[in-house]
Amino acid sequence: MLRTRRHPVENECEEALAGFESHSLAEQDEVLLLERSDRKFLLHVNFLPEVLRSLQSQFTVLTIGPHQMFTYQNTYFDTSDWRLYLQHHNGATHRIKYRFRRYAETDVSWVEIKEKNQFRTVKERLPFLRSGAIPVRGTDAVLETKLYVNYRRISCWDHATGERLTLDFDVHFRRTDCLDTYRLANICIAELKSSDKIDASSFVRRASLFGLERTSFSKYCIGVCLTEPGELKQNRFKPVLMRLDKIQRRARAPS
Question: Model-level pTM?
Answer without folding.
Answer: 0.90
